[in-house]
C-alpha cells in the first residue's frame, strides 16, 4: 500500500543515480565540476577548457585544447539545408523552438546519429557545441532583419559567438562576462533538463533526441526560461535610463512588495536544491556589476538590488543564476527571447556529458506511480 510519504512529488529529495560530473552542495553552498570549484573555473578557464573537463573528466593539456579548438572552429557553419529549415520557421515563434528544431535537424543530418559508442557520442557532442552559437546568432539576426554574419575561424568560441551575433569582436570586458556566464551555466547535476536528457538516453535512444528533449525541458519558466522572465519583470517595472540607482531601487522594492502581496511567483528567485542562495550567483553578480559599470547603467543595479532585497526581507528567498544572467545578457544587447538559447549553448556541455555517463552504466529510467483514477469499470454498450 503506497502512503502519501512514499510519493516524492517532483522527485524532490530523491537520489536517482550517481554522477561524477558535478557536485551541487547546498550545505556548503558550493558547486564542483569534476572536483573543481566553479568559481575557479570561471576565473581561470576558457569555456572550451570547461567543456573538455566536463566530457573527459580532466582539464585538457595544451595540445588537446588546440586540437579541440580547431575542430570546433571547423564545425561552426550551418548547412544550407539547416538554414533553409530555420528560415521557414515564423519569426515570431520562440527562439527555443528554433534551437529545438535545429538540434533535431542536426541529428537527422549526422551520418553517425545512430552510432552509440562513447567515441561517436563525444564527436556528436563536440559538433553540437560548435554549431549552437551559429544557430542562436543566425536566429536573432534573421528576426531583426539583419544580414547573417558567417563565423570567423580566427576567433575563439566566445569572441566568435558575440561576433556572429553583433557583427563586432567584443570588448575584453564583455567577452569575459559572457564567458563567465557560459561556464556557470554549463552544468548542474540532475536538474530538470539534464534529467530529461538522461531519461531519453536511458531508452537507448540517440544523443540528438536526448538533447532535443532537454531543450524542451529547459524552455519552461520554472527552469531555464526564467532568465527571459527576469527581463520581463524588469520591463514590467520599466527601465528608466535617466533614473538614479537609489530611485530605481526604491521603485523595485515597491514593485516586489506589491507582487508578493498578490502572491505572485517572481522568476529568478528560489531553487529546488539551494535554499540559502545559489552558489553561482555571487560570480554572475560580479559579471553583471562589471557590465553595469562598462555600459554606465547604474539604474539597472538599483532595480536588481531593489527586487532582491525586498524578496529577501519578505520571504528569505534568494536569487538563482537566472536572476543576474538575464540583465547581463540584456546589457550585452541580446534580445530577451534569446537568453534561454544562450543557456542551451552553455548547457550543451553538461547535457551531453550526462548522456554519455548514463549510457556508460545504463538502466532504463522508469519510476512507479500510485493510481488514483476510477476503480475498474467496464464498457457498457
Ligand atoms: C537555472 C534554473 O533553472 S534555476 C530555477 C529557475 N526558476 C525560477 O526562477 C522560477 C521561480 N522559482 C520557482 O518557481 C521555485 O523556486 C522553483 C521551481 C525553482 C523551486 O521550487 P520548489 O523547490 O518546488 O519550491 P516551491 O515552488 O514549492 O516553493 C516553496 C515556497 O517558496 C515560494 N517560492 C519559491 N520560489 C518563489 C518565487 N520565485 N517567488 C515567490 N515565491 C516563491 C513558494 O511559493 C512556496 O511558498 P509556500 O510554501 O508559501 O507555498
Ligand atoms: O539545478 C536545478 O534544478 C536548476 C539549475 O539551477 C540549473 O539547471 O542550472
TrEMBL record:
Coiled coil: none annotated. One of its GO terms (molecular function) is citrate synthase activity. It comes from the Bacteria. Keywords: Acyltransferase, Transferase, Tricarboxylic acid cycle. GO terms for biological process: carbohydrate metabolic process; tricarboxylic acid cycle. Pfam families: Citrate_synt (PF00285). It catalyses: oxaloacetate + acetyl-CoA + H2O = citrate + CoA + H(+). One of its GO terms (cellular component) is cytosol. The active site is at residues 271, 322. Pathway: Carbohydrate metabolism; tricarboxylic acid cycle. Belongs to the citrate synthase family. NCBIfam families: cit_synth_II, PRK14033.1. This is Citrate synthase. It comes from Rothia koreensis. The lineage of its organism: Bacteria, Bacillati, Actinomycetota, Actinomycetes, Micrococcales.
Amino acid at each position: 500500500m503506497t502512503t502519501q510519504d512514499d510519493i516524492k512529488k517532483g522527485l524532490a529529495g530523491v537520489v536517482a543515480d550517481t554522477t561524477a560530473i558535478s557536485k551541487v552542495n547546498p550545505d556548503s553552498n558550493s558547486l564542483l565540476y569534476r572536483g573543481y570549484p566553479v568559481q575557479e573555473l570561471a576565473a581561470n578557464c576558457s569555456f572550451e577548457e570547461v567543456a573538455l573537463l566536463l566530457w573527459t573528466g580532466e582539464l585538457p593539456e595544451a595540445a588537446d585544447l588546440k586540437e579541440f579548438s580547431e575542430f570546433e572552429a571547423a564545425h561552426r557553419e550551418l548547412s544550407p539545408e539547416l538554414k533553409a529549415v530555420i528560415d521557414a520557421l515564423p519569426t515570431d515563434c520562440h527562439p527555443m523552438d528554433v534551437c529545438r528544431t535545429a538540434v533535431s535537424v542536426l541529428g537527422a543530418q549526422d551520418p553517425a546519429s545512430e552510432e552509440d559508442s562513447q567515441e561517436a557520442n563525444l564527436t556528436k557532442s563536440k559538433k553540437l557545441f560548435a554549431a549552437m552559437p551559429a544557430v542562436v546568432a543566425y536566429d536573432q539576426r534573421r528576426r531583426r532583419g539583419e544580414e547573417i554574419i558567417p563565423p570567423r575561424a580566427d576567433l575563439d568560441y566566445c569572441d566568435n559567438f558575440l561576433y556572429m551575433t553583433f557583427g563586432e569582436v567584443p570588448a575584453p570586458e564583455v567577452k569575459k562576462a559572457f564567458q563567465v556566464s557560459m561556464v556557470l551555466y554549463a552544468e548542474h547535476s540532475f536538474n530538470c533538463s539534464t534529467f530529461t536528457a538522461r531519461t531519453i538516453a536511458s531508452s537507448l535512444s540517440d544523443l540528438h533526441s536526448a538533447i532535443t528533449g532537454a531543450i524542451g525541458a529547459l524552455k519552461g519558466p520554472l527552469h531555464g526560461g526564467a532568465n527571459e522572465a527576469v527581463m520581463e519583470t524588469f520591463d514590467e517595472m520599466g527601465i528608466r535610463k535617466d533614473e538614479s540607482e537609489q530611485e530605481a531601487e526604491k521603485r523595485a522594492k515597491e514593485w516586489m512588495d506589491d507582487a508578493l502581496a498578490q502572491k505572485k511567483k517572481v522568476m529568478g528567485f528560489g531553487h529546488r536544491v539551494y535554499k540559502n542562495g545559489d552558489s553561482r550567483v555571487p560570480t554572475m553578480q560580479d559579471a553583471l556589476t562589471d557590465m553595469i559599470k562598462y555600459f554606465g547603467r547604474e539604474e539597472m543595479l538599483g532595480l536588481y538590488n531593489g527586487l532582491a532585497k525586498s524578496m529577501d526581507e519578505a520571504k528569505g528567498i534568494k536569487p538563482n543564476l537566472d536572476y543576474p544572467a538575464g540583465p547581463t545578457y540584456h546589457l550585452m544587447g541580446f534580445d530577451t527571447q534569446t537568453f534561454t538559447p544562450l543557456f542551451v549553448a552553455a548547457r550543451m556541455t553538461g547535457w551531453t556529458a550526462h548522456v554519455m555517463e548514463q549510457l556508460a552504466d545504463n538502466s532504463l529510467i522508469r519510476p512507479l506511480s500510485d493510481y488514483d483514477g476510477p476503480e475498474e469499470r467496464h464498457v457498457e454498450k
